[in-house]
Specification:
single chain, 60s Ribosomal Protein L30, Chain: A, 2 domains, four-stranded mixed beta sheet, 22 helices, 49% helix, disordered N terminus, MmgE_PrpD
Length: 472
């Protein structure tokens, strides 16, 4: 029997309450057509990444660990995954799948990957509770808003403290996604946020290697959904958990220094918006390349040189890159593993120059040992560039100068990489990316069937059949 939540504290008026009222009051009818279409696109994009990531090593490790622990078996389907799980395990597996191949979307102003925590939460709980498609899509819009606004309010201070926003802020996003599916009022949403705050986790230790980064959205998704279910079961939580003295912003984003008063933060104005919409989902990017987004402007630059100037890898004497400090830090990352290679400026840019592309196929063991790439990578140097650093995180810019063996210097400045909301992938490109990722796992016919359902997801009476169509 469901229990009411005790009214343990007076209602707060800070950013936690503002977000709670936004989430509880969101109706898809309030969402403009541009943002609604963006929510469909980003759901499709995330699900493609999840389906492709279902066979990665990190996902296999999670599934083996669940089996060894004797947990997980259930009836809930998850995109790309063969086994059915309980709702929490399905959420964890789905989040891990989506982030595993560095193909998931993001929000520049918050340096966060919202799709990887929002979509698995919506799919797992939505399928279990048989919610309609309109509620499903509203939960996606709400989840993106929470992920993006909390991350934007924290970034880059949280990054320099070593926190990965996808894991830390992501738990609130997953919890609020679930809250919409469960039709919570503002008090209940605030309770979810208060419960989820104790599970915010994720460190940048992954830059030293290993596959733990892949599981950050998995952990955040599971714990966020659990916070919503604990709220349903009557567990009371603190109010104002984002901004109060011992809360999230103080712990993760420098509020303890006295430089910021997060209690007065206009949370829904954190970050930036697309000119056509006030909703954060409308201003998120999609990845055309299978690497860290901080490197995409650099890839754009060298691919443009190849196309316009005929530049080839054997003509390159040196590559000098100037970018913002958060990106430049990736100039020191090695490529001994796929995880680190996708984060490494020298490896990714060398790959773009040698292969004319940056795809999943370019990060295997043989590719990381390619002599042409290994010979070029040490000649790619990165430093902090003042203009790029000054405008970050408003833009993710890079200035690239290539000195050729015959003495030419080719220069490109890219301040907004391809795939951003202002330089977006077309719907056709989104379809091509999804089918390219999903068809090898689901088969062409089923991938196209699922895609057709996704484009009209808000018309579905029940999203459970959609979840079944997406399952491996």
């Amino acid at each position: 029997m469901d229990m009411p939540i005790p009214d343990a504290r007076a209602t707060t008026t800070g950013p936690t309450r503002v977000l709670s009222e936004f989430v509880a009051g969101l109706d898809l009818a309030q969402v403009d057509d541009f943002a609604r279409h963006a929510a469909r696109r980003h759901t499709i994009d995330t699900l493609g990444a999840m389906i492709a990531g279902a066979t990665q090593d990190a996902t296999a490790s999670v599934e083996k660990a669940f089996a060894a622990a004797g947990i997980g078996a259930g009836t809930v389907p998850m995109a790309g995954v063969q086994q059915r799980y309980d709702v929490l395990s399905a959420a964890y597996v789905g989040g891990t799948c989506g982030h595993g191949l560095e193909l998931d979307d993001g929000y520049r102003a918050g340096s966060v990957h919202p799709g990887g925590v929002v979509v698995p939460a919506a799919l797992a709980l939505g399928a279990q509770r048989h919610v309609d498609g309109e509620t499903f899509l509203a939960s996606v819009v709400a989840g993106y808003e929470v992920a993006c606004r909390i991350s934007a309010a924290s970034h880059p201070r949280a990054r320099w403290r070593g926190f990965h926003n996808t894991g830390t802020a992501g738990v609130f996003a997953a919890g609020c996604t679930a809250a919409v599916l469960l039709n919570y009022d503002a008090d209940q949403v605030e309770n979810v946020i208060g419960t989820a705050a104790s599970s915010a986790a994720g460190l940048f230790t992954f830059l030293a290697g290993g596959d733990v980064k892949r599981t950050h959205p998995g952990h955040a998704t599971r714990e966020g959904v659990l916070a919503a279910l604990l709220t349903e079961a009557g567990l009371p939580a603190p109010r104002g958990a984002l901004e109060f003295k011992d809360g999230y912003f103080n712990a993760y984003a420098g509020g303890d220094t006295g430089q910021f008063d997060y209690s007065t933060l206009d949370i829904l104005a954190a970050g930036d918006n697309h000119p056509k919409s006030r909703f954060a989902v409308a201003n998120c990017y999609m990845k055309p390349y299978a690497s860290c987004r901080h490197i995409h402007a650099m890839v754009d630059a060298v691919l443009e040189m190849a196309a316009d100037d005929g530049l080839t890898a054997d003509q390159v004497k040196a590559v000098d890159i100037g970018s913002y400090a958060v990106a430049a830090a990736h100039g020191k990352v090695g490529w001994s593993e796929m995880t680190t290679a996708q984060m490494s400026i020298p490896f990714v840019v060398a790959t773009a120059l040698v292969r004319g592309r940056v795809t999943l196929a370019d990060f295997g063991e043989a590719e990381r040992a390619d002599e042409a790439i290994l010979g070029l990578a040490p000649r790619i140097l990165t430093e902090v560039e003042a203009e790029c650093d000054d405008i970050y995180p408003r833009k993710r810019g890079a200035k690239v100068a290539v000195t050729t063996t015959d003495g030419r210097v080719l220069r490109r400045t890219v301040m907004e990489p391809y795939g951003s909301a202002t330089k977006p992938l077309s719907d056709e490109a989104v379809i091509e990316k999804f089918l390219g990722l999903a068809a090898p796992r689901l088969g062409e016919a089923r991938a196209k069937q699922a895609l057709e359902m996704l484009w009209r997801v808000d018309e579905l009476a029940d999203v459970a059949p959609l979840a079944e169509a997406l399952a491996g």
